[in-house]
Each structure stands twice: as C-alpha cells, then as structure tokens.
Amino acid sequence: MPTLWQDVRYGARMLLKNPGITFVVILALALGIGANTAIFSVVNAVLLRPLPYDESDRLVFLNERSPVIDEMSVSYPNFTDWRNQNHVFEKIGVYNRNSYNLTGAGEVERIPTAQVSADLFSALRVNAAIGRVFTNEEDKPGGTPVVVLSHGLWQRRFGGQMSILNQPITLNGKNYTVIGVMPQGYLYPSRVEMWVPVGQLSGDSNWQQRGNHPGLFAVARLKSGATLPQAQADLDNIAANLEKQYPDSNSGNRVRIRPLLEIYVSDARSALWVLFGAVAFVLLIACANIANLLLARATARQKEMAIRSAMGAGRWRIARQLLTESILLSLVGGTLGLLIARWCIDFILYISPDAIPRSKEIGLDWRVLAFTIGVSFLTGILFGLVPALQASVVDVHETLKETGRGTTRRHWLRSSLVVVEVASTLVLLIGAGLMIRSFYRLQNVNPGFSYARLASFTISLPQKKYVTEEQRAAFFKRLLENVRALPGVEAVAAASGLPLGNNGWQTSFMVDGRPIPPRDQTPLMEACTVTPDYFRAMNIPLLRGRYFTDQDNRSFLAGRDLSKLDEGERLTAGTNAIIIDEEFARRHWPNEDAVGKRIKLGTDENSSVLAVVGVVGRVKMEGLSQDSNRVQGYFPFWQLPFTGMTVIMKASGPPDQLVASAREQVKQVDPDQPIYNIKTMDEIRAESVAPERLNLTLFSIFAGIALVLAVVGIYGVMSYTVTQRTHEIGIRMAIGAQQRDVFKMIMGQGMILALIGVAIGLVGAFALTRLMVTMLFGVTATDPATFAAIAILVTVVALVACYLPGRRATKVDPVISLRYE
To answer: Which pLDDT tens digit goes with each residue over 487-501?
Structure first.
C-alpha cells in the first residue's frame, strides 16, 4: 500500500509536469466516457431497471388476438371470464384511455384520463399517497362516481390543497368525488392525470357484447411460482372454452401475454443496444489515440526508465508506475465525464422527449455511477497497459547512450492502433451514413396529403350533454361555419382521426354480392369519418367519382331515435356513402371502376349496403415508415357524427396564428368545451419521425467525434514518424533523394495504414450493420453506395491527415539532421 500511494503521488506530479498532454488525454477521455455514461443511463432506465412496482417481474400484459388482428383490445365479458376462471394470477385488472372535460372553477380543461378497474391498483400493488383508490363496490354499474387525481394535476389545478378530498369536481358535466391523490411520479398508464372506475361503464349494452373491443387492455400479477408459459397455457385453455361457448364472437380468438416491461421497451430495445455499441466504438477509438500518445511519451521517457531500472526497479515496478498514471488520467476523465453525461442526457431529452420510453426515469443513479467507475478503470488499463509493458522493457546500455530513436516493436504497435482507429471510425461512419440515407428517404416519403399551412385541434363532446347525433352534428356544423369565416382561413374540416398517428379505427367488411369469406380471411379497413371539405383541406387527390357533400346526411333516417343505436348499428343502419382509397379499389375491383360498387360492413348478410361514391389517393395513416396492409375507407360525418373530432384548418399564412381565434369560436358555440392536441401538421410529422431523428442525431455525433479522433491519430503517428526518422530522411536526401521521393515515402506509409484500416472496417461494417436493419427505412444494411462513399471519404481524410507530416518531411535539412545525430 505505501508503494502504491507513492506511485499515485509520483504519477500526479508527472502529469502536472506535462499539462498539454494531460489536458488532451483527459478531454478525450471525458468525451468518450461521458458519452458512454449518457447512453448507458438511457439503457439502464429503459432496459435494465425494473419497473417501479413491487416484484415487477411478475407483472404481465394481456390483449386479445384474432385470426386477422394480432393486436386487439380486450372484450369486457372476456376479461370477466379470464378473471373468474384463471388459476395463475394473483390479481388482474383492465384499463383504457379516455379524456374528460374538467369544468368549474378555473379554465375549462381536457384531462387525459384512464378508466381502470379497481384490481389494476391491486395488481400493481400501488395505493394513493393521499386518500385512497376506489373499491370493487365503486367499480361496477351504479357505483358512486369517484376519481383519483395525479400528483401533478392536484398541484397544478387544485394548488395541492388537502381540502379537495371528498369534494366533487365536474367531469363531462357529471359530478365525481375526489377520493385520492396518487404518489408523485406514478403514471400508469402513461400520460394520464386522472383515474375513474371502468366497471361503471360495463352495464352499457355495447360493453356487454363479446364482439365489442372498447380499447381495453389487461395487466395481471402472476402468482408466486407461476411462469409465463404456464399462464399462456391457462389462458389458451380459457380462450378455447370461450370459443366453443361463443363461436360468433370468439372464433379463433386467443390471448397474447407478455412481460409488462416488454410493452414499455419492445420498440426501443434494438435501437438502444446499437447506439450503446456505437458509443463504445467512440471510446475504443479514444483509447487507441491515447495509447499512441502514451507510446510516444514513453519513448521520450526511456532515459528515465533506464535510470530506474539501473537503480534496481523491476519490470513490473516500472509498468505499475506507468499504469497508475494511466488510471489516474482515466479517473479524472471519468469524473469530468459524469458532468458531460448529465449535459448529454439533457440534450437527448430535449431533442426527442417522447422518443424514448420511461424517459422520466433517466438519470444518474448508483448503477450509472458504478458503470462510470468501472469503465474509467477498464479504460485506464486498456489504453495504458500496452504502453506500460513496452516502456518497462528497457535496454539500459543502449538507452543511456541516448540514440533517441524508438524500437521497431513500438512503431508496429502505433501503426496497429492507427489501423484500429480507422477501421472503427469507418464502421461508425457507415452506420451514420445509412441513418442519413434512411432519414432522407423517410422525409421524402409521399404521405398522400400536403403538410403545408395546416393546424389542428381536437374537441371531445361529453355524451351526457350531447346526447343525440343531431346535437353533435349541429355543434360541429356551427363551429366549422364560424371558423371558415375567420380571416386567413382557406379551408376547414373535421375528421375522427388524422394521418401519421394511427388515429383511425378498424372494421371488417365484405363486398356486396360475393360469398361471405372465412373469418380468418375477412378483410379489414382503416376507417375515418370526415366532413366534406376534409380532402380539399388536406389536399388528398380525388382519382374518380366525387367528394362528400352536405347532402350526404341522415335526413333519410328522420324519425328514428339514433341515440339508441350502438356504434355497430349506427354504422350499418343506413349510412349509404363511402369514399375509398386507390388500394381498396385495386384490390377488390381490379380493372374496374369502383365508383358505384357496394360493400357491407361486418359479415352479416343483413347489413346495410354502402355505395362507393369516390376514390381518393392512399394516405400514410400509421406513420411515414409504416405501410399498413389494410385498405382505407372514409364515412361522411353528417351520417356518422362522432363526439370526438379533430378540426383541421388550412391557413393562407402561418397556421399557428389561427388557433387563438379558433379557440374563441369554440367558446362562442359552447364555453364549456376545451380544445386540446393543438398542433400543426409539420409538428405531427416531426413527432412521427422523432425516434429516427434521435437515432440519426446521436449516430452522427458519435461518427463525427470518431472521425476527428481518427484524423488526430493518423496525423499524430505520421508526425511522430517524421520526427523519429529525421536522421534517416537526412541521409536519404544527402545521397540524392528528392523532396518528392521523401513526400511519397511518408504519404505511402500513412496511406498503407489507412487503407488496411478501411479494408478491415468494410468487413466489420458489413457484419455489424445488419444489427441496424430495424432502424432503417428504404435502404439496406449493406447499401453499396453508402459503403463506397464512406470508404472514399475516409481515404480522402487520411490523405489530408498525412499531407502535413509529409510536407514537413520534405523540409528536413540534411546538414542539420546529420549534425544533430
């Protein structure tokens, strides 16, 4: 221990005696370790850290799947049977997402809300921080309307006052009693601020139908000792029995069960590991650079090592001293790296706050600190071990004669490190190049509509206040007329969902006059209800037929009480107009004019017939990178008025300037209706590619750092080579070598190393970029153009890095160099 402390003190003094080299090394380490720590903190929060629930490894997520839909929400009657018949769950609960208008004191506000069963809290083993959560008695038809608030909503809207407990608040025109406030940071499901009992809705006739899947998903806690395969087998058995009992609704339906953590991270897992691998390459390149620098420094310290050896220091003693200095450098670099990591985390969350799951959990915890310390030690050993071992091999007699030249072995090591740098840099640059090409292709995908000058906002009318469809239609008709009259509005429309957000709904259908298809072959359409000007506002081209008009209304159903029809009945009770996309027409009526053709919703022969009145271009509904196999259909709003609609405004100028005026028009129609999800289409487009933009940004930054380090490494080695070979160059020039001969010699030596690195890097990239397949769009992981372009770029950069040392070599004066020797 005393000798170790002596090594530390001596190493610190030596580092302070060489502030230039020390600063450069610490800066490179801080950047490398900081970037690695930042990405590890994301990996740790998203992939490695358990969910913030007791024994979270026992939590599972359940949904239904049918022969034609793999991801389907849960039927409430089916959930009830799962709960009553399973043998593997300690508790099982369900939830869906909604939003409620909060009125009363303060500004009217739309609050994201989860409708959940009481058993969901039990399954997660969470309770209210203040008050309580609701009971099973409250979670059933006729139960007392109660609500639990999030900590954030309690603080923001109610000032954190305890007096709100057991007091009523008005949601969608109905009084709910506040019974609790959840702990700070609790958000399940994510992005909600209130929880209300879902069981109170289960008495509705729609919810009692097994064929109705109202956006419910289930979360369960496995019994102690129960496994995922056992749970799957148990639920498969229940589903098979339900299929026998209810063949019309449950034929072919099964249950899909997965760990709850997988639902959070499934889309991000591969991308995060690829980014973690990429940033590890950056640190590897930094280590190679630093090792080269320390090898050069070791050559300068040969006399010192020879004296220590002559005085009795053994090889291990010398190596330990140098290794201690390396670890000191890495620990200081790691400490600064933690500060850089904090900044990097803030930067990542700033550029794409919603692109990373569990983003609120990202931070510097004990795991991240342990990782940083471990990486710092390993890094110090990695870049310091070889130089330390090389420097500890000392020929005392030759060194003390001060020949001043390094050994061939050290030259070979420095050359090898340059090859490693170039190869690693090439791999990163090819990865970044693929990302750039992929993002460029994604940005240039034709979405099927125009983004230009479009702004949107959403309104959800409470059903208690707007009971009939005629009331809903009247509200939106008056609102659209008022907004249309605003200065700067070129067009205005409303739709039940917008493109790029997967906001439509799905329904099965059959072509009229054709046999009913088998259930596993029933076609599906992505459906949306729209007002007549929707296609003009969105600039969706009409290919054949006509757009909707105000005459596509429900006047022919006058006298019927539409409010008593459930959603399925409304769809089939006489809505006789539909507009389809070009893929719909091509797939079902190839080489025919689809206008005038007829379809039926569902597979019931008694369903009402819908006539195709127009064919429009295909739109990217789920996202720019998604190409759904489902066809698209549009229903006229005046025949199918929804309570929740998104209003789209096409402006003659900047679209966001219309929002304030539109908000006032909403207040004029109904002052109790808030607007929310206020966005321009450009913002919606940016959100749809946020994960891809984050991957591109980080990969490009890592590749840029790697390229700079590689250039510095090549330049440093070639400069050192020129210095070490000054005597040789002087002799060559003294016996007749021309400047161009010396220049070609130095350039050739450097470019041989670079080209070897390029060759190895191409092979490595060909193998490693296959891991990026899921992150790319419109380009293969082995795209020849990207590989060739990056190889040429690295070669040119290497030429530039070798040029200055080569020019310096031509300036050597033979007389001075020989006199020095």
So the answer is: 999 999 999 989 987
